[in-house]
Description:
By secondary structure, the protein is α/β, with parallel strands linked by helices. The protein has 2 domains: 1-101, Rossmann fold (3-Layer(aba) Sandwich); 107-200, Rossmann fold. 36% of the residues lie in helices and 26% in strands. The chain has helices at 13-23, 42-49, 64-77, 94-99, 120-127, 162-185, and strands at 2-8, 29-36, 54-56, 82-85, 104-108, 131-138, 148-155, 189-192, 195-198. The strands form 2 sheets. It has a 7-stranded mixed beta sheet with strand order 3-2-1-4-5-6-7. A two-stranded antiparallel sheet has the order 8-9. The two termini are 23 Å apart. The relative contact order is 0.15. The mean pLDDT is 97. Bound molecules: 5-O-phosphono-beta-D-ribofuranosylamine (GRF). The site of 5-O-phosphono-beta-D-ribofuranosylamine has 14 residues, from helix 1, strand 5 and helix 6.
Amino acid sequence: MKRLGILLSGRGSNFEAIADSVEAGRIPASIAVVLSNRPEARGLETARRRGLNAVSIPSKGLDREVYDRLVVAELRKHEVDLVCLAGFMRLLSAYFVREFPLRILNIHPSLLPAFPGLDAQHQALEHGVKISGCTVHFVDEYLDHGPIVVQTPVPVLDGDTDETLSLRILKEEHRIYTEAINVVLSAGWRIEGRRVVTAR
Ligand code: GRF
């Protein structure tokens, strides 16, 4: 059974969706540890309530790689096979990425490469796109950049605000994160250039 490590900084709704999928047997893995750079993250509290290992490693004042070494050590301690970023608001160092090659996933609330970075839903509304969506991708050392595992479109409606669009996208995030984890845990995928190709 593979072991997941979840990294989060806040609310943790994607973490909860993953935990629900694990509990329901929709993901053949266990959650080994939930780790946050913010001690006050709601997701940590939820993890504790669910009886999971919840660890806080504050990042304040630490050099990026010094911090990442602490996080990687914690993930190793819990024998994590796959790292899932779920609203983890930090860029990973090259060191971290090298420690888990093609073993770190992130979810982003847009159809990448459109609207990377903060407030992707707001960016989409401002730009006036008619379709946005969400993306689960492998993490490299660049922001919202690595090979794409799963993407799904979400319509932008005329009356949308940041909140209504975010909510519609979030529903899909919760669905595709489970799907992407299953793809990566299965044996049937390979990388061709930037393309994640799943065997049929
Ligand atoms: C999500 O919109 C995710 O795509 C982005 O940050 C948000 C985290 O939400 N990376 P939650 O903490 O999972 O509820």
